[in-house]
Amino acid sequence: MTTVLDISFLRQSSGFADADQLLGLINHLPNMVFVKDTNGRFIFANSALREYLGLTSEEALHDLNEADFLPERSVSKVLADEARVLETGEPTYDVEECFSIHGGPVCWLSTTKLPLRDERGRITGLVAISRDITESKRQDTIRRGSAALFEMIARSQPLDMILHSLTLLVESMVEGICASVLLFEQETGKLRHGAAPSLPEAYTKLIDGITFGPKVGSCGTAAWRNEPVVVEDIANSPLWQDYVEIAERFDLRSCWSTPIMDANRQVLGTFALYSGEVRKPSAHEKELIDMATSIASIAIDRWHKEERVRYMAHHDPLTGLSNRTLFWTQFNRALHEAKRENRMVAITYLDLDDFKQVNDLFGHAAGDEVLCRVADRIVSCIRASDIAVRLGGDEFALVFSNPKHDEDGVRRRLADIRQKISMPIDVEGACLKIDCSLGVAFYPQHGQTAEDLLAAADVDMYRAKKAARNRLTVLEIKD
Asked: What per-residue confidence (pLDDT) applies to 5?
């Protein structure tokens, strides 16, 4: 149906004397306008709608239908709504509809549809006026999604849940994109898996643990440079030359990564978007990346601080060993398991001999250094199932939770620990030899509760200290 017929239709239905003038007015409207007859056929589309659909100004409309530019699930709903307007004569106002024109990006229209009537009041078709609200919907989704994420952060939800929700939010707003977060592990200097709900699990396992570097894909390089790295074509990027086979195996063609930084410009991780096409990010995708990295920075930084608070609440700030609060929980758990499994538990009270002399002769900083070295030596001698705690001052406790009723074996282990502790320590220009006194008690023969057992070990320790002949020895004073 041509423009001539369109004008004819307007002359018949509008009552406008100058149909050309009316047509010109409608074609200059920023909103999209179309008219259909009672059979649901397009008989008019203004310039804004034609441009939106990619139609030329001369292209006929009579063969055009929704299936040409809408996904199947949307077509049935649109036609049903229009049939209702034609049947009942009741208009619909500002109905929000989600479309994907020709399989392109998701877009939103707000549409009002009104029945057209002739001079006798009979319905002869419908007219629709639509406006693109995609951007406002995107911004609204970002606001609502961000608010939900900030609430999760405020409620101290687990970090993996927050990052999972963040990546899903980003993916819901773009087509054909997979989002990923890698977390910087300070102890190892590696990037570890944080969240990647849509990437193949096999791929996330392969890249879990990559390091920083000038040619470590997009993420490792972004973390190395402290700046975004956009790789439009993975197959031909020198940054991906050591990883290109992995990416191609999973049909990943482009990757855009941005470092996640804290307020001090320290790297917390990376946020990346992967595409199955060779391309660069759109302006909308860049906006999402900025939003995601900002929220991820807040979430990760807060998680680190909360982890630090939790750690400090249960660990000695000087030596890093468990403190009394955590110790009682660990010790009681070990006793509970021993009662259930009919196992023996050994508790050792350890006190450094004449430690006060270290502080008096060399100062408290030297004393702190000695305590840290002693703690390190204790940790190096115990197993993962054992417990080490600094009770306070120069007093420590050890719990061996699986000695298999072998008291002699426990005493041999304690002799090894005592020997390790007594090895010379260089501190403040002096070489010191620190000895310790040990007391040990066994569950169940020496007590049933953690308090009784620790008290028994304490008594045994003082008995050993009273009989001890070794004291602080200064082996050498260095110039």
From this structure: 35
